[in-house]
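Protocol step 4 of 6: structure prediction from sequence.
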Amino acid sequence: MKITVLQENLHRALNLLGSSIYENNALPIVQNVRLATTDHGMLELTATNMTFTISTLIGAQVDRQGSVTLPGKAFNELVGYLAAEKVEMEVPQDGNHATLHLTCAGNRTEMHGMPASDFPLPQDLTDPVVATMDAEALTTAINRTLFSAAKEESRPVLTGLSLHLKPEGFTMASADGFRLSVQRSDLLEPPSHDVHAVLPAKAMNELNRLMRREEQPVTIAVDLDNRSAVRFEVGATTLTSQILQGAFPNFDQLIPRDQKTAVTLERDGVQRRLRAAALFSGNGTIQMEYSREEPPADATVVTDGECVVWGKDEQLGETRTTMPVEMSGEDNRIAFNGKYLQEAVQHMNFGKVTLGINDPGSPGVFRGEGDDSYVHVVMPMFVQW
């Protein structure tokens, strides 16, 4: 291999791969980044952690085709220290085919790597179902679901995000046994038929990071033959992820259809009150109570009400704060895990948030006011009122 690239392009591509993907892995080859020329005068850089793989392309002057793998972290740092000039890289045809000779301005480096033939590349998708989605819509879906995926590995399928592609749009969902997030959005180009996959949360977090640099539509291809992999194409970058095996819960059955009480809260106002209550929430529980001084004869009528938010700690003390709300239905009360409640409100980027509840022992249902595309369900905490 003998090529010439610009230092800034090479450094940008290495940073795009992300340092975490090839760190803390027991396999030496997986700690490396793969460099390979293409038939179209490009240099492809690839990194993997065996669960997902990221590849990106940059322009290059290719004098001789070839490939090599190099220690990812060290190579990225080296390139970052080089001058913003042309970088010449060569792997000799004779002798050690895993040693890179690099020249840039006054720098001369010889870096030892491993043969590219040892690098584990993802398999090609044999019979993919393809769809195209807006990058902003996909980013929103990931942001609104990623936080409620399970962190424990006892049920691996719950550590991922469920993605369902249909001709009428896509649905992304997550659940950890205590809460559920569901986002529905349109597709730019729908698939030929329905397809479903559960994708690792870490892979979706990396995809979210990649999309911050791109405004182009995202193409997704799901391996229909053996349902083992999904590929996302974002500009010149590709992320290929394994599919988690197992049955994801039928989340539509877990969303309560009717609520006795509906409350609309100012998102920013309730966030401040929840943070204050959390300081005094020794057991992690935040309690909320909703009431009206004069309930109307028709309980479905929306009127002004009051929400009381409080946290209590036996050693520190107790804090209570009130805020005006719009509500309909019965006076009611409910308690939530404080962390879950704060995360739910934090990731709902709406001006106002609606909460529907039935009783202190039933789940709370959060939505954006006037927006049915997103729903978040949280199980209550049981407390002595």
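Step 5 (inspection) to follow. DSSP finds six helices and 25 strands in the chain.
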